[in-house]
Design a protein that fits this description.
alpha/beta; Rossmann fold; 2 domains; globular
Length: 313
């Protein structure tokens, strides 16, 4: 699986703790880095999901290497209950989710995820639905500004949206380089070295793929599928993702803030926690990893374990 470097692989394996006879799910197969390492670590069965048909095709070699143990499913990880249920899988010993974009997707100009090379403004992880070009050319200025602000946390969202609308009135925006050029014409280069187009490209990618709703659905379904002692391990790459993961896990472990005694909600009996946090604070990649793979710099790993009956959180 050359070209793909699985982020925080040692930490993922140590936290997931796969064992012989276990049944696991890699909900974001991508380049197969986690999947291959899990299968190599023990005699387990692994199901893997990816919405990208290219990822499923690349995975054929790994399936052949682990006959009868690796099963690839094309679809969204937010639909894991239905996808696994079609094959009679209703309980898992562990789930791992890598919420980042695959290196194969980023590095292929034809996929339109990156502004570092010119290509069609696509950004779809699958092959269906509207592209980023559709959004950029059809959304109103206000809608564009809301997307950039809410999903990219872009402070200059209104200025960028105004520039996009002015540019598309001259000619449709259909390539990554043209969109990036429009954004760079509005924003000065950041002293940090981060390209001015980074946040806007992130926002459009999240919107095109409905990523935040997908994450919320996946977390809920993964927790439902976990057997007692089963673990959910999630690697997130930006604050929007990480906040969703943190909130979900804290709530599942019964660690959410208690309402004020003056709040009527404080009178309600809180349900017993069915999970425990394995990461009081998110794990971060080691320095040697970020030096070798700069894309790992923003990674945060959080994990949750379903309690065995009668076990204290």
């Amino acid at each position: 699986m050359s070209g793909h470097i699985p982020v925080m692989l040692p930490e993922v394996l140590a936290t997931l703790a796969p064992h012989d006879g276990g049944i696991y799910l890699d909900g974001t197969f991508g380049g197969g880095g986690y999947a291959g390492a899990i299968l190599e670590s023990c005699r387990c069965t692994l199901w893997a999901i990816d919405r990208d048909p290219d990822a499923i095709a690349r995975g054929a070699a790994l399936v052949a290497r682990y006959p009868g143990r690796l099963h690839l499913l094309r679809g969204r990880f937010g639909e894991m209950l239905a996808l696994l249920g079609e094959h009679g899988v209703t309980m898992l010993d562990g789930v791992v989710l890598d919420l980042g974009v695959s290196s194969f997707q980023l590095d292929d100009p034809a996929r339109g995820f990156s502004f570092r090379a010119d290509g069609p403004l696509d950004m779809r992880m699958g092959r269906d639905g509207p592209t980023a070009a559709d959004l950029v050319n059809r959304l109103s200025e206000r809608e564009l500004a809301d997307v950039l602000h809410e999903l990219g946390e872009e402070r200059a969202a209104r200025r960028i949206a105004r520039a996009i609308v002015a540019a598309r009135n001259a000619a449709p925006i259909v390539t990554t380089s043209r969109l990036a050029g429009i954004i760079r014409g509005v924003l000065p280069h950041d002293r940090s070295g981060i390209d001015p187009a980074t946040r806007s490209f992130q926002a459009l990618r999240i919107r095109v793929n409905d990523e935040l709703a997908e994450i919320e659905q996946a977390l809920d379904q993964a927790a439902h599928l976990l057997a007692p002692g089963g673990r959910l391990v999630v690697v997130a790459f930006h604050s929007l993702e990480d906040r969703i993961v943190k909130r979900f896990m804290v709530t599942a472990a019964g660690r959410s803030p208690v309402p004020s005694r003056h709040d009527p909600r404080s009178l309600a009996t809180r349900p017993a926690a069915g999970f425990r946090l394995l990461t009081a604070r998110p794990l971060r990649p080691a320095a040697y990893e970020t030096e070798a793979n700069p894309r790992a710099r923003s990674a945060r790993l959080r994990a949750l374990e379903r309690l065995v009956d009668g076990e204290a959180p």
